[in-house]
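Hi Y.,

Following your request, here is the sequence exactly as I used it, all 348 residues.
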Amino acid sequence: MDYLIKRISIIFLLLLFYTNIFAQTKNANTDSLFKSDEMLYITLRANFKKLRKDVKTKSKYHKAFMNITDSDGVKKNIVVNLKPRGNFRKNPKNCDFPPLKLKIKKKERKKTIFFKDQKKLKLVIPCRIKRKNYQQYIIKEYIVYKIYNELTDLSFRVRPAKIVFIDSIKPDTSAKYCFFIENPSNLAKRNNGITKKIKRVKQDKTNYKHMTLLAVFQYMIGNTDWSISTLHNTRLFFYNMQQAPYAIPYDFDNCGLIMTPYARPAPQLNISSVYTRIFRGYKRKYEDYIPIIELFNSKKENIYNIISNNNDLNKKNEKKMKKYLDNFYEIINDRKKTETEFIKNCRK
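Below is the corresponding structure, written out as C-alpha cells. Let me know if you'd prefer a different format.
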C-alpha cells in the first residue's frame, strides 16, 4: 500500500512539473515580439491617403503589405490589415497621421516569428509624421512604458520599430520611429489572469497597493489623462473574479515627462500646463506610501539608465526627462512634501 501511494505521489509530481513546463512554454509563445528591445525594421505599403481619411467613429480595416526583417535576418512579406484608432489623434485637425491597429490573419502570422502569436496589435506613430521633433515624442512615450515595466510586470510591454510608410499614391522612403504595444489578452496570459472592460469601478475597489503604485507613477510622469471608472487609458486585470482587479495604464502622450505640443490638462484641474504635477490618487496614510517610495528609490538607477541608454533620444530631451524626474525624487524623499502632495492634495 505504501509503495502504491509512493508511486501515485511521484506520478502526481511529474504531472505537476510537466504541466508547469507546458504552461510556461505556452506563455513564452506570446513573448516572440516583446521578449527583446531590439529595433525592428519594417516597410508598410498601403493606400495611406485613403486610410488617413477614414476618421469616422467606426473606422474600417485597410489592406496593407508588410516587409519585415525576421529574427533570422531574412526578409519576410506578410499581408496585414490596418485601421486608424484613438480619439484625439485620429482627428486630422490634431494629427496628420493617426495611430494604427493591426489585425493579422493566422496564415500570415505563421510567416514570421515576431507575429506568430499576435492577432491584434496597437502601433504608435508620430502625430506629425514628417516632422523629426515629433519622433522624439514617440521615443519619450516608449521610454515611459519601459519605466513602468521596470516597476511592475502588470504593465503593457512595447517593442520599437523603424517603419517606412510607402503610400501607393505618394511614396515616402524615410523611416519613422514607432512602437508596438502588447495586446491585453497577451498581457493577461503572461500574468496568468484575464482582462475585462468593466466600467464604473472606482479606484478604491481595485487592488489597494497596486493602485497606490499606479497613482504615484502617474504623478511621477505628470499624467492626469486617465480614469479607472471610465476605463480612460486604463484596463482592468483580474487574477480571478473573486478578488479586486488591478488597474493597468497606457497612452502617456499627454504627460509632463513627454510634453507634446498638443497636451492640455483638463480645465477642472486648475493647472495651466501638464508639466505641473497634480496627484489624482485617493487618500492613503503616509505609511502606505513607504514601500512604494522604497520601490521607486530602488529602481531609480535603472529608470535613469532606460533614458540614458536609448540612442534615439537626443541629449536635450534626455536632460529634460532626467530633470523632471529629479524633482519627483526630491518630493518623495521629503516626508513633508510627500504628505502635502499625496495626502493633503489627494482626490477627495
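The first strand starts at residue 40 and ends at 46.

Thanks again,
Q.
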